């Protein structure tokens, strides 16, 4: 506001008598605009990088206009050959034409950048409401500043919690999630940080409940009655463990009597109920489309606790979607599924595939047109019936 007031009015007080015919006003305006551009680039006051880029481009264009105006003013002066010496033009007319052409080119370039950013934002694979196709509302309660606080064990969960936060920020532009590497200034204020978030995300991995700081965060979440969103690392090779092993770890370590953050703590039973029983843990999958499903599940639970959707839960009933995400599988005709009987649980999995494919969009295969056969018998059996339709090996 101060910059706008200065450029629009206060600059007129520079040399009030002859300022309109001299260079002082243009030079001062150009310097002020350049300084503001530098401050903008250093302070980065905008949350979204796109907003910062747009503001910098606009101020750069304004600064260039003042500089070009200075060049025209020089060429209109009475000093002989000064225009050609400093600017490179023989008269003010040539300088003015150059300024007009360059300004028009900058305006066209700015418009193209804005259109490109707008088109990219529209086509970006961001999370939308399946019911309306629109981005979800990310309104926060007035008393907090973050949509979620993510708690994790540094030894076994740090890399994946970073992935979760970065991916959610990409899929939900504007979402704010408290992450230690981004927001931790003082480890003594962990409890305050938990209270400053709308939800409490728990990344469950080996050693989580053994961490003293993780338990501090858990007790703070219990004390402030924050909704728990448990995320379960199932890959044992990457620091995961079974649910039963994690429950045992919780029983063994969450035994503090009247912890400072939550003096009314009643014991491991209360912790188990909030972490594991209040809502089923979301399985974290690291690969491609499966990871997207985990992220959508996390986002949906956060939105369910948003004040905006407290009275609009019907908008979330259909769930969330991402444009161009893999759709439901469907069969286009008779299908034979071959499966190995030695694979444990293959019958249950094949039945799930059969049911899901039969319900898929554009599916033309009825349940009776999907045959399930043992691979060894169908391929090597002497009296095996010939395979028909599309053949899928599971």
What does this structure look like?
With 394 residues, the chain is α/β, with parallel strands linked by helices. It folds into three domains: 2-123; 146-321, Toll/interleukin-1 receptor homology (TIR) domain (Rossmann fold, 3-Layer(aba) Sandwich); 335-393, no CATH class. The chain contains 14 helices and ten strands. Strand 2, helix 6 (154-171) and strand 3 form a beta-alpha-beta unit. The radius of gyration is 31 Å and the shape is flat.
How many domains? The number is 3
- Per CATH, the class of the largest domain reads Alpha Beta
Number of strands: 10
N-end to C-end Cα span: 65 Å
Helix segment tally: 14
């Amino acid at each position: 506001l101060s910059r706008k007031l200065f450029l629009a009015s206060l600059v007129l007080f520079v040399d009030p008598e002859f300022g309109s015919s001299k260079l002082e006003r243009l030079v001062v305006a150009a310097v002020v605009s350049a300084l503001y551009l530098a401050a903008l680039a250093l302070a980065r006051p905008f949350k979204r990088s796109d907003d910062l880029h747009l503001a910098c481009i606009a101020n750069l264009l304004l600064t260039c206009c003042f500089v070009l105006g200075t060049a025209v003013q020089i060429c209109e002066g009475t000093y002989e050959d000064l225009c050609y010496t400093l600017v490179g033009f023989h008269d003010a007319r040539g300088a003015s034409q150059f300024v007009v052409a360059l300004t028009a080119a900058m305006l066209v370039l700015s418009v193209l950048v804005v259109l490109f950013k707008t088109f990219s934002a529209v086509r970006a694979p961001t999370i939308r409401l399946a019911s309306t196709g629109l981005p979800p509302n990310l309104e926060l309660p007035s008393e907090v500043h973050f949509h979620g606080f993510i708690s994790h064990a540094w030894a076994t969960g740090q890399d994946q919690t970073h992935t979760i936060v970065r991916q959610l920020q990409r899929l939900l532009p504007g979402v704010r999630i408290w992450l230690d590497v981004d927001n931790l200034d003082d480890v003594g204020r962990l409890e305050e940080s938990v209270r400053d978030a709308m939800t409490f995300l728990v990344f469950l991995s080996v050693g989580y409940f053994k961490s003293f700081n993780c338990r501090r965060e858990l007790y703070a979440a219990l004390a402030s009655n924050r909704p728990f969103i448990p995320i379960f690392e199932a890959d044992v090779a990457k620091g995961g463990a079974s649910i039963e092993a994690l429950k045992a770890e919780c029983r063994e370590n969450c035994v503090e009597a009247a912890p400072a953050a939550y003096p009314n703590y009643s014991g491991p039973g209360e912790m188990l109920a909030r972490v594991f029983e209040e809502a089923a843990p979301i399985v974290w999958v690291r690969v491609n489309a499966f990871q997207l499903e985990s992220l959508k599940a996390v986002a949906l639970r956060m939105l369910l606790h948003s004040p905006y959707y407290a009275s609009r839960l019907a908008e979330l009933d259909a769930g969330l979607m991402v444009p161009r995400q893999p759709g439901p599988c469907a069969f286009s005709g008779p299908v034979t599924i071959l499966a190995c009987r030695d694979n444990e649980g293959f019958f249950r999995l094949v039945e799930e595939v059969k049911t899901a494919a039969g319900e898929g969009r554009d599916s033309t295969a009825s349940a009776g047109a999907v045959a399930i056969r043992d691979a060894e018998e169908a391929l090597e059996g002497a009296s095996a019936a010939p395979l028909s339709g599309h053949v899928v090996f599971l």
